[in-house]
């Protein structure tokens, strides 16, 4: 960017000693916080208002599979932060390797989630209120429905939007990797990696909350 | 950033271990133990928020950011609490 | 923009290309220059303003002459009008669409982009001394997301079932299923369009906040920022935090309609009240999004045209922030009639009345600024004074509604319609007229015609009050807010003459706007050439040529004082530009901070 070019040697007066791109990403993340507040808040409210519509933990959802998925996402956060640490030292190869690891783990998370969705839908757990007939994992197939119509609606909307965020993150990571492969980042020029990391860790953070609220409580 | 040279490298792997252990504990508490529901919920939420705090502070490097950014980042928190508290009060009358 | 508009812009820009020439499409269509994006927003939203006005005219025909054939109605398709031998009569479903689309288009596609898209883009970088926004490309994306959203919204008139008809608030369960409104695809297009528009506003807000925080010129401390920029900054924060809540609610409603989830469908256990809460949790900050920038603009104009420092600059800033915060804890006052925990109702009532405090601080400060000022009653000042007086009326009727017992009676009546128009038309729109007239020379390098503007002002302020003042009476007599034919009720039938009077006034009011439209386009080409600083103003945007070149400032300006030092004894003129060094002291070195050390490149 040409910000410094036209200012005749004088710099603007930053109110935040953080460069624009990073500040912008943080501000954007604040709005993401509010977006997930809307979704998660609706879930909490609906669940309090209609407790009978929601199943106990583990009755419908597969906790072990998702715990593994949570583990995956936490690992991808570590690899992401390692990529950032690598480029801080100017280690181009390290950056690329760790980014690649993050992409692979992040994509696996999406894959596991898709697998989970398919399995759940196969058991009759669907987001469509009128067609809802979840029977649960340990129940006979002709048993009564567990929970109610709101359960599927809220579950798929929340986890689906989180999954969308992860998928977008993976695409952005691929872009970052492509830029890294061209040698675009150096120890003095790592804004792109840092804000990519911020977004990725934020997605991880949301999942930590979602996992507890949706699967465990 | 500029703080990278001044401090020793952040404890990334230690935080990872902490997150991992907390996750395992959460799953165990939720599935194996049989403590009353209210304490279960409070305990699990406390652990979840602590995990989220760890990610924000260490992985998102808030620990090394100026205090003003902390202020900016904490802006939505009261709003979240207001929204959820009020609507709960409204819809869920015990 | 159409080619005509591009040529107009081109003509207005003439002669300021001392740097490399951008290709046409980059300069006028996919431009990243904040001034060009501001103009793009202005033309598009003025277009929507006209559309919204025409929708209102059609509504008023039905209310003034219920059941009578509408002139020109034969031109509209049968889905909207029932043809009879004497002409076409409006269908109730179409009336519902008109109500909904008038509200939606005026709020989301006219007033909001005019205040935030136009003035935010135009003023923020110029007033803080930045060469452009922090993220110029994101800025362009913000505009080019708003355009398809607008097209989607308009196209919903053409689909089967017509445009959305559940009101601009789209209360569930009315909006959840086409069974109730008869609108299927139109409602979904409405939801999709607003979601896209929300994303556009969000991108803009991120940009504004970053720009204001990080790109102020040396010496431009927080309390030297002009009030317009302050107001736009707080507005951007409100947009940033409120729009995602709306987006979440819109998406859930869209899912309810399309894939059949049950969030807001009571028959499967969903909570229609949840929609109201989410909508108004967004909706009340939205109300302040629509008024705060107007207040900022008016503060600029009044201080400048009264040639006096604004009275109580700090209290003005604190009032803006206070209104911004209080906006989050009052949303329940839209829902007194929805049935509410009495404890909550009372707290919402008190917090709503508390908003009167910062609003009154601002009003009294404006009055104190005018007091014994050297008043220049030219058109921007007239519009600004109209804002203040109409805002007082609208604000006072707002206090009526905040009181729960009163609200039970006037809820969803024309009293509410009168109130919203006193603050949105009398308030925001007059401020927009003031702002466009005031900054017109900066945008196009020419002045608007003063006589025509005064004619427009006189007609508008009179007709406007003739339209909206009687609506208070209609409301108090019980006429409900969204009704196709009120004469079906015996007790409302006597209101027919008053409704007719209002309708005739509306037709004249809409016609009177053509004076402004004519003046606007005429002045772009033929207006008197403007100097750099035609209003003798202090703020930074008037130190650069009109219109400013790409990059705005030839070199980074240094700011020495606040923006409202009019009639200062220190200065030999009656204004004292922010960039003029004080006579006695050498340039202040310590004001120039050290540059930020790390400035990594982005993507």
What radius of gyration of chain A results from the CA coordinates? 21 Å
DSSP helical segment count of chain A: 5
Could you name the CATH homologous superfamily of chain C?
Answer: Cytochrome c oxidase-like, subunit I domain
What level of helicity do the residues of chain C show? 55-70%
**H/E topology pattern of chain A:** HHHHH
CATH topology of chain A: Four Helix Bundle (Hemerythrin (Met), subunit A)
Helix/strand/pairing class of chain A, anyone?
mainly alpha
Give me the CATH architecture of chain C, please: Up-down Bundle
What's the number of domains of chain C?
Answer: 1
Could you give a quick summary of the protein structure above?
By secondary structure, chain B is mainly alpha-helical.
What does this protein structure show overall?
The complex is a heterotrimer of chains A (217), B (94) and C (603). Helix content of chain A is 67%, strand content 0%. Chain A is mainly alpha-helical and 217 residues long. The longest helix of chain A has 33 residues, at 149-181. Chain B has 94 residues and is mostly helical. Chain B has a domain at 3-66. Chain B has helices spanning 3-6, 12-31, 37-59, 67-73, 76-91. Chain C is globular. Chain C has a single domain (3-526), classed as Cytochrome C Oxidase, Chain A (Up-down Bundle). At the B-C interface, helix 5 of B face helix 8 and helix 9 of C.
């Amino acid at each position: 960017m040409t910000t410094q070019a036209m200012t005749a040697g004088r710099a603007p007066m930053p109110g935040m000693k953080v460069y624009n791109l990073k500040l912008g990403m943080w501000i954007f993340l604040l709005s993401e916080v509010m977006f997930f507040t809307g979704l998660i808040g609706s879930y909490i409210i609906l669940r309090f208002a209609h407790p009978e519509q929601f199943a106990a933990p583990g009755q419908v959802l597969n906790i072990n599979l998702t715990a593994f998925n949570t583990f995956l996402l936490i690992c991808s956060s570590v690899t992401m932060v390692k990529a950032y640490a690598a480029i801080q030292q100017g280690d181009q190869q390290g950056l690329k390797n760790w980014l690649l690891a993050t992409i692979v783990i992040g994509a696996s998370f999406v894959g596991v989630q898709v697998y989970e969705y398919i399995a759940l839908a196969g058991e009759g757990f669907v987001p469509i209120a009128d067609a809802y007939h979840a029977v649960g994992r340990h129940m006979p197939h002709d048993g009564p429905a567990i929970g109610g119509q709101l359960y599927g609606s809220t579950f798929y909307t929340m986890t689906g939007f989180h999954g969308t965020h992860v998928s977008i993150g993976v695409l952005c990571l691929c872009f970052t990797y492509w830029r890294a492969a061209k040698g675009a980042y150096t120890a003095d020029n790592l804004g792109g990696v840092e804000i990519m990391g911020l977004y990725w860790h934020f997605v991880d953070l949301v999942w930590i909350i979602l996992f507890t609220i949706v699967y465990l409580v | 950033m500029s703080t990278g040279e001044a401090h020793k490298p952040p404890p990334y792997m230690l935080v990872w271990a902490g997150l991992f252990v907390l996750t395992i504990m959460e799953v165990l508490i939720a599935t194996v133990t049989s403590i009353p529901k209210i304490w279960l919920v409070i305990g699990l939420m406390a652990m979840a928020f602590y995990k989220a705090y760890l990610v924000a502070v260490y992985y998102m490097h808030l620990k090394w950011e100026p205090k003003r950014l902390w202020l900016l980042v904490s802006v939505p928190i009261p709003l979240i609490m207001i929204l959820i508290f009020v609507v709960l009060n409204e819809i869920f009358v015990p | 923009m159409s080619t005509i508009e591009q040529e107009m812009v081109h003509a207005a820009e003439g002669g300021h290309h001392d740097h490399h020439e951008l290709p046409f499409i980059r300069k006028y269509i996919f431009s990243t220059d904040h001034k060009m994006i501001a103009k793009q927003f202005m033309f598009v939203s003025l277009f929507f303003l006209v559309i919204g006005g025409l929708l209102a005219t059609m509504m008023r025909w039905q209310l003034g002459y219920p059941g009578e054939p509408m002139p020109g109605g034969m031109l509209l398709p049968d889905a909207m009008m029932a043809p009879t031998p004497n002409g076409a009569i409006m269908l109730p479903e179409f009336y519902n669409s008109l109500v909904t689309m008038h509200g939606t288009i005026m709020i989301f596609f006219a007033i909001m982009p005019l205040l935030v898209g136009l003035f935010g883009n135009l003023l923020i970088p110029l007033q803080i001394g930045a060469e452009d926004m922090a993220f110029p490309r994101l800025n362009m994306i913000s505009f080019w997301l708003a355009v398809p959203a607008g097209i989607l919204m308009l196209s919903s008139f053409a689909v089967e079932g017509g445009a959305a008809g559940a009101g601009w608030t789209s209360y569930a369960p009315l909006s959840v299923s086409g069974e109730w409104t008869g609108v299927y695809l139109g409602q979904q297009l409405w939801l999709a369009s607003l979601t896209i528009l929300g994303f556009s506003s969000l991108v803009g807000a991120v940009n504004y906040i970053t720009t204001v925080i990080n790109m102020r010129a040396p010496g431009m401390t927080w309390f030297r920022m002009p009030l317009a920029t302050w107001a736009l900054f707080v507005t951007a924060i409100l947009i940033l935090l409120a729009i995602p809540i709306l987006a979440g609610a819109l998406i859930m409603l869209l899912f309810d309609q399309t894939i059949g989830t049950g969030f807001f469908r009571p028959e499967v256990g969903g909570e229609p009240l949840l929609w109201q809460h989410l909508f108004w949790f967004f909706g009340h900050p939205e109300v302040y999004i629509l008024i705060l920038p107007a207040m900022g603009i008016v503060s600029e104009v009044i201080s400048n045209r009264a040639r006096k420092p604004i009275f109580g600059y700090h209290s003005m800033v604190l009032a803006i922030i206070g209104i911004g915060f209080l906006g989050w804890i009052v949303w329940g006052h839209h829902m007194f009639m929805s049935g509410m925990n009495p404890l909550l109702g009372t707290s919402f009532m008190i917090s709503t009345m508390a908003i009167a405090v910062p609003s009154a601080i601002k009003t009294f400060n404006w009055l104190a600024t005018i007091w014994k000022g050297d008043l220049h009653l030219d058109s921007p000042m007239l519009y600004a004074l109209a804002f203040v007086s109409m805002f007082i009326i609208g604000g006072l009727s707002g206090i009526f509604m905040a009181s729960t017992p009163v609200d039970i009676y006037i809820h969803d009546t024309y009293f509410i319609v009168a109130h919203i128009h006193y603050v949105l038309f009398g308030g925001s729109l007059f401020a927009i007229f003031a702002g466009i007239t005031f900054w017109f020379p900066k945008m196009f390098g020419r002045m608007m015609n003063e006589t025509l503007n005064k004619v427009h002002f006189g007609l508008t302020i009179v007709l406007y009050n003739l339209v909206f003042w009687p609506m208070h009476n209609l409301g108090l007599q019980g006429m409900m807010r969204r009704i196709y034919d009120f004469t079906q009720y015996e007790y409302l039938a006597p209101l027919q003459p008053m409704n007719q009077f209002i309708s005739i006034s509306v037709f004249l009011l809409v016609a009177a706007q053509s004076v402004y439209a004519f003046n606007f386009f005429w002045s772009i080409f033929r207006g008197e050439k403007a100097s750099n600083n035609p209003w003798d103003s202090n703020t930074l945007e008037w130190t650069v040529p009109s219109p400013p070149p790409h990059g705005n400032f030839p070199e980074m300006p240094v700011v020495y004082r606040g923006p409202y030092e009019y009639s200062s004894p220190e200065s030999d003129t009656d204004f004292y530009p922010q960039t003029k060094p004080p006579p006695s002291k050498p340039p202040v070195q310590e004001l120039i901070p050290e540059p930020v050390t790390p400035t990594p490149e982005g993507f």
